[in-house]
Design brief:
Blueprint: H1 7-11, H2 23-44, H3 52-64, E1 71-76, H4 82-87, E2 93-94, E3 101-104, H5 112-116, E4 118-128, E5 131-141, E6 151-154, H6 162-174, E7 176-183, E8 186-193, E9 199-205, H7 217-220, E10 223-229, H8 238-246, E11 263-264, H9 265-275, H10 282-301, H11 309-325, H12 333-351, H13 363-379
Parallel strand pairs: 1-9, 1-10, 2-11, 3-6, 6-9
Antiparallel strand pairs: 4-5, 7-8
Helix pairs in contact: 2-3, 3-11, 10-12, 10-13, 11-12, 12-13
Amino acid sequence: MSKSMSNEQVLLDPGLQIDSANMDQRVFAIELSYIFGQRVVEEYNKAIVGENDAKIMRATLLLAGAGNAMIGADFGNPGSGKSRLMKYTHQVVEGLNDSQVATIPHREDLTPAEIVGKSDSLVRTVKTDEGQRTDEVTKKTNSLIHPGTKVLIFDELNRTGTAALNAALQVTQDGGIDIATKEGLEEFSNTIKLNEFELIMAAWNHYGTLHTHGIDPALVSRIAFGTELGRVPKGKMITEASDQIWDHPEKSYSGDPGISPVISIKNLHLLREFVSLQPLGQEARELGKIAVGVMVESFKDRGIFLADPRLSSQFVRGSQALSMIRGHKSVNEEDIASVGEMIITAKLCAAGKVNPSRPGGSLEEMVEDVFSRITSSVKG
């Protein structure tokens, strides 16, 4: 790195080289991750007021990477900024462009062919003066997802049809989608493999709103963590929080907010290499093990099956990425607790178990209940 370059300039320098075996370089990577997280929040502030938890979660997801099929989720009331935040996410990374973003619409009749594309051969026989002529016409269905897609967005996931939900499940499982095609009377499976995703995101409205339903448990397990948008911060009146989110006098949300890139795609990959090298402190390690075990039991009580190895990897990878964004040299208990809240929140909402009308059934009450069980287990 040139001594004349600031760390902020280094983030966008595609020629940056980091030696993962060098301790000083690891500390440097943490410093860059911290700056990256701060700048991501600054850029997102151009698009939406407040909601810092969601912005930090998005930066954490970018750093953790989508290679482990980690899905970041936004949920909340209609109009709380979920789709807006997702729309501009890729703009903070230089090297990602609009053509690499695929948004899956929330239509019940969405077909697999529309998601991944399909070619059908139509054969027709035409009578002519000379006899008969056979014409073959190829009908092409353009795909929403295509090779080269780097960012995948499922908007209003809870209103999406079964075909799209199955596509989301298969994409996050093995990076490809199998679709049935037909030639004449013969049916066969056509597998379309996709390049590795940089980011997979989903959003949906709170349960209890119109056209909401639960999500396949296998897909729930792949949703790593998420943030509720439009939540009233503790200690704030509802009207005060509403003014902050909806009626900020200094912001105008019409048009393009002008979000700028804060990191190159190459350097994002370099920093991702250091996430797995971020050590977990002994106390954080013990807390993480306890938290995972208590979560599994607590969710079982609510009819949610979470006996999945992804849960542990989501805790570890997510807390390591968040720790680097916070500038910590190792993962501590605060990082574990923060990621734990995001994981608990996302999986409860994705499973459709939130019922605000039932005593103890609100999202905040359920998250607090799980954390109280974790705290009790730690003290015990």
